Prior knowledge:
The chain is an all-alpha fold. It is 77% helix and 0% strand.
Amino acid sequence: MLNALWLGFFVIAAVAATAQWLLGGQAQVFANMVQALFAMAKLSVEVMVLLFGTLTLWLGFLRIAEQAGVVQWLAKVLGPLFGKLMPEVPRGHPALGLITLNFAANGLGLDNAATPMGLKAMQELQTLNPRPDTATNAQILFLVLNASSLTLLPVTIFMYRMQQGAPDPTLVFLPILLATSCSTLAGLLAVALVQRLPLFSPVVLAYLLPVALGLAGFMALLSTLSAAALASLSALLGNLTLFALVLLFVCLGAWKKVAVYDSFIAGAKEGFDVAKGLLPYLVAMLCAVGVFRASGALGYALDGIRWCVDVLGMDTRFVDALPTALVKPFSGSAARAMLIETMQTQGVDSFAALAAATIQGSTETTFYVLAVYFGAVGIQRARHAVPCALIAELAGVVAAIVVCYRFFG
């Protein structure tokens, strides 16, 4: 799947660029594509520099947590649930605790902590993989849920809206929560259907229903806060949670008589080795995406969608928000640029800008996640991971548009 996808980016880009050259006389498009290749290669290195520091830091702390028994305790508590959802992973396996930490960090928007935890979890799952180049069912479920973008506090979206002069930056808070919940549910159902997971098992429901009710209550509470209060709460929760985790790991490690400094150094070395192996995968995926964007293929796709929507007699306002949706699976920075451009050209509280902000907050950089998580363990055959992740992505986009018509249409 990844081989076909990667090749498809270049083939489609070549066709689109040739069309621009022959039909539009824009020979410069080929120079733009070559420039995009080198720009994306440079960006890959810049991303790797950030990952080196982050992975080294957090995998050092995670090594202390493992030796202190935190990860094993989480794995034991959640063993019955993961026994149903990931039956090939033994109960009490360290991967289960790391998966839990990763989901919790993602929910709070702690990306710097979530990624190292997720990569460590993927490595632990890889130790159970009988075919190291092929993704297992557990790895696919974990990756799809990571790519479904379930975040309780999308404060970055509020900041973008505030910077563009929105009178109520949190106007899209509830739409984002509804849309991102749909994307996560769609991803889970897609994987469950392929892997025949017993989602309606009493054990699974006993774990998931209280979480769902708790999330609903938390969402209801947050919806009552002002923009300033929500931003303040988010900053407090994020920083407090990060530092509390560090303090918990170190103090518990010391209490369990773990040599915390030596343990940190050992984990940090592992983080350095993991980050070093990611660069080829990032270069490959980001360069393909860069060429695809520079070729004009995205513009052709938008024009085609607008024409189809117009022929069907439907409202076309949402099409102006689709640039964010179409580039988000490939590049978070590109989607952010598209969102800000939409706000500036259409108006920060226009329907297109509100829909684009909701899409940005309820979708994920799917192909980046695929490249990083599978690249970290050398997986080349993704099996049904790509279609299931794209189903979650599509569900998030469609839900965002529908919800925005309900709230703002």
